[in-house]
Structure of Golgi apparatus protein 1:
Amino acid sequence: MQKPADCPCAHSAHADAFKTGSARAAELKLQPKMAACGRVPLILLLTSQCLCVFLTQGLKPAANVNVHPPVIAINRQLKIGASNPKRTTGWKLADEEACREDLTRLCPKHTWNNNLAVLECLQDRKEETEIATDCNHLLWNYKLNLTTDPKFESVAAEVCKSTISELRECADEERGKGYLVSCLVDHRGNITEYQCHQYITKMTSIIFSDYRLICGFMDKCREDINALHCGSITTGEKDLHSQGEVIACLEKSLVREVEQQDQPHPIKEDCKKAIMRVAELSADDFHLDRYLYFSCRADRERFCENTQVGEGRVYKCLFNHKFEEAMSEKCRDALTTRQKLIAQDYKVSYSLAKACKADLRKYRCNLDNNLPRAREARLSYLLLCLESAVHRGRMVSGDCQGEMLEYRRMLMEDFSLSPEIVLHCRSEIEAHCSGLHRKGRTLHCLMRVGRGDKGLVDSLCQNALQALIQSADPGADYRIDRALNEACESVIQTACKHIRNGDPMILSCLMEHLYTEKMVEDCEHRLLELQYFISRDWKLDPVLYRKCQNDASRLCHTHGWNETSEMMPPGAVFSCLYRHAYRTEEQGRRLTRDCKVEVQRILHQRALDVKLDPELQKRCMTDLGKWCSEKTDTGQELECLQDHLEDLVSDCKDVVGNLTELESEDIQIEALLMRACEGVIQSHCHDVADNQIDTGDLMECLVQNKHQKEMNDKCAVGVTHFQLIQMKDFRFSYKFKMACKEDVLKLCPNIKKKVDVVVCLSTTVRNDTLQDVKEQRVSLKCRKQLRVEELEMSEDIRLEPELHDSCKKDINRLCSAITFGNAQVIECLKENKQYLSHMCHQKVFKLQETEMMDPELDYQLMRVCKQMIKRFCTESDAKNMLHCLKQNKNNELMDPKCKQMITKRQITQSTDYRLNPVLRKACKADIPKFCQNILNKASDDNELEGQVISCLKLKYTDQRLSSDCEDQIRVILQESALDYRLDPQLQLHCSEEITNLCAEEAAAQEQTGQVEECLKTNLLKLKRDACKKEVLNMLKESKADIFVDPVLHTACALDLKHHCAAVTPGRGRQMSCLMEALQDKRVRLQPECKKRLQDRIDMWSYAAKVAPAEGFSDLAVQVMTSPSKNYILLMIALAVCVLFLVGLLCGRIIKRVTRELKDR
């Protein structure tokens, strides 16, 4: 190449030539300062570009070029501060034969006199337009001479004289080696001198059109260009003006190398730096990225026509339209490559590097000595570092935050910008997510795979997804996630319109409306996919992080973790926080109030889906597959794990147990249950629901109001399920646990099941009560809560597992149509007691025995008679509630349903004295005295079918019972006389007779003794001796007390009042009074009474014949109750007197005979 001759006016001429160059150059504004890189002589790629704008005086064409241009004359005088430039004639590109035809065809005539304008016109021609090879070569040689001549530096020194003096770094550079121009390019953002800035900017565009003109680039990347077949470094082998493709090829290879581990030709480190430096230096003006410029020229006109060149504005505009349908594929690919380079080094984005430069320095984001420089420059690292500063409440400039938002959105839109995902998730994308590249759809598809909705995912892919979500931080602004934004737009407009657009609480609002009518299916899927990853890093919820960072540092020791640390276990911090959220003051350190509110919010959201709890999903993965694979509906998985609590592996059992224990304290964590129960909460539990601290009150209220009209099926099922889960461990009942923890440890150690603990404690309480100990072993607060638990358990047979398991087959056989709850199944079993299996029968008997001792545990009785108890028994003790109701049973104000329920309980009591605590206590001495033979045959858990009570009835007629026992038997006799169902022995032995002879009376709704009267009337028709004996016993009992004969008592009520008012009831006294009145002709009884009395006398006479006295006592009773009692007694007295006289007479005779015999 021929050296250009000295030319005195070369500098000024060429500068002037530049000034009058293309109009496009005048549009360029001052460029921001680029980050300085290590200075290597002539390495600063092109831009260090030794921009030699001067007059090249000779160009020697290559051998294959036919044109021989003359020595170049001065094209234009450089004008600096002069109004009239000096004109000088010289060599012009327009005069060269090689380019004349192309110039005439492509360039306006007014540009022909300016070599640089001609050069710009020809190199920026339309893509489909070709120029001659000789012209190509000529232009390249011209540009090469410009950039390699030492005088180029002297031109820059003169044009930028004042700028160099201001930039000390550039003024100190050694001259003659290209360092000065490199320094000016690096600091071009700080150049305020107009002509210097124009000069540097203009010459940059010349150099970037061909990689070989970038000083040092060819030397560093020669081997890689050849190895990767990215182009030719031999002149003439390729279109010289398409050499931007060489850099584009290298850039694609660099990106591919990061995405694929098995590259056959890895790019050398020096070339990598050179490639990234070229990308960095072309960041402000998209014209400088020649490949992208030519690929997107038409798209720029289509989408960004009004966007000014400079400061990366055209890049950003094209990025925003990347997924438009009208965007060409070639441009989209070029944009994607540039975005991938930005992901590798944030400085490739001019606007981001400029806006965040001060913040990066302020928060020391590039000073981590533990990380390699390549990692430190990554876009993800920059975002993580600055996001953590924002989350901590530090000030990050608005411009920087705006840029961060753009690039976070960019990462979420296109998964391919994250090389780790491309590398590690390739198989998942091919298997599940092909064809979903645009607008973040692939990423959300991968998130769904990561959730486990489409099978297992590789751990490296899972980690890559988590890292991307951490970098993009969509939790801070949902708009970053375009797929979510589009899917949930309608929900946000309706359900969350009260929240400011872009507020982090938008995501929380969406979660609150998950599975509600306002939620749409697509939004639901996108939301759960994103929340799955947010839940695994507490920093991704900015509100939680801001409110709880101090608590986390204080309680969970997170200060040892770097904000960008990848070693933090998923969900570890939040698990620590919620363990401290519900501690009492006695238990030690607690969360601050603001942090606890946020922890509760997150817990409420996580309860919606088991996959939102990282610890639960990790430890229970096997059990979920084993027990709950078919439980896929909302909330079913956790319920399934709780149902199989005993079967879970220990790790899973612990975490499910801890979560259930937490729910027992704050049931509002169960968001789905709270939604289902909203009506009943508003009506009956709003007071406790509004409390900041729940402590189990809300669940207790829901249980108590479980059968209110506002209670719907979903709520009732949810409440019952939680009650059933509580049976598995007493810790799951918060109030019970807190009230009885010490008592359980002392009295019931090693017992975990709640039902067993309740039985243990209640047995202790009962024993202490029966023994009248001075101080109960169970504390008062525990006894109170124990009562609540016992009452709750009585409502549903499933809450008593032992009873339920014993009667499961009987329930299916006898009560399959009965729904659980409201004690209906228990009531069904009681009514079908005679058909129960032996085991179930025993359990039901034990239950009835407990209920009779403590009627408050009889759920059905207390429910049906709730109002009557308030009316009649407000002052009665809970244990005497049934006794009180029985006393008021026939009150005209008694509710019919309650009356019917009382009768049922009386029937139950009549079957066994053990089911009647009052009778049992009153006859404690009489029962073993008179009925021991029956007791000897009895078992502890089966009814005696009324045998003991029948025994006591007979002794009552004999007047041999103690006064207390006699009073109770009298009541029983009176009750059974009105309702035959209260006499089990009568029912047992006379069932056929009742059906055949007294069917109409037995069918009567109100029993007033009609069946008993029917049997007495038909005494002669009774065939079975056992039934006849029972009826005769009834007659015998009626002689002992008229109250036992309700028909007779009703008929003779007035006569009793008139004639026997002074007679004390009992022991047959009033009956004897009426008999005497019947025989007294002076007394006129009521016709009905007279008739009934006569009938009774006939019956008693028949009874005496059919059933003669079995002993002296029976005979005495018959005499005393006989209408001819006085006559019989007189006759007996006369007989005794006669016997006495006869004995006297005989004694005298015997004495006289004896004396006579002695005398002889």
Notes: Residues 957 and 1017 are 21 Å apart (CA to CA).
